[in-house]
Specification:
It is built from 4 helices and 5 strands; from the N terminus they run ββαβββααα. It is an alpha+beta fold and 138 residues long. The chain has one domain (25-135). The strands form 2 sheets. It has a 3-stranded antiparallel beta sheet. Strands 1-2 form a two-stranded antiparallel sheet.
């Protein structure tokens, strides 16, 4: 494929882009969908206890209900972002959104070493989604 050259002008500044456009990212794996579905099935929407964090590892997703130290090592999605008081019902509402579910699948794939996405950025976006759903509901 021939290289493409694009010149962009901003006032008196010219920027020249050359090269092939980057390849689109690979879709999330089937295993990450199974892990997210298993986590979704484990949540109890009638439970009124607040979730403090979600710990995402390469093999599971665990909801933490207390501010205690965990033995699991992985990406942590803070469910108390900006003072959010999230319950399992709020997290389940968030997971109904395809974009949020995709973000959680990307974190699982990043923990497994199969994705180029940054898991901490995805975790912060999910924390913002949890804040939105727990504060304003839907």
């Amino acid at each position: 494929m021939a290289k493409r050259t694009k010149i962009t002008k901003f006032g008196n500044i010219k920027i020249k882009f050359s090269g092939d456009p980057p390849a689109p990212p690979a879709p999330p794996s089937h295993e990450s969908d199974v892990i997210v579905a298993k986590f979704e099935a484990s949540l109890q929407p009638e439970r009124a206890t607040r979730i403090v964090a979600l710990i995402v590892t390469s093999s599971e997703i665990v909801a933490r209900y207390r501010r205690t130290e965990s033995r699991l090592v992985g990406t942590i999605v803070d469910a108390t972002h900006l003072g959010a008081r999230a319950t399992a019902k709020d997290v389940l509402t968030l997971l109904r959104s395809p974009h949020s579910r995709l973000g959680l699948r990307r974190i699982v794939d990043a923990e497994r070493g199969m994705s180029e996405f940054e898991p901490l950025a995805e975790a912060k976006m999910l924390a913002g989604g949890i804040y939105y759903h727990s504060t304003w509901g839907s």
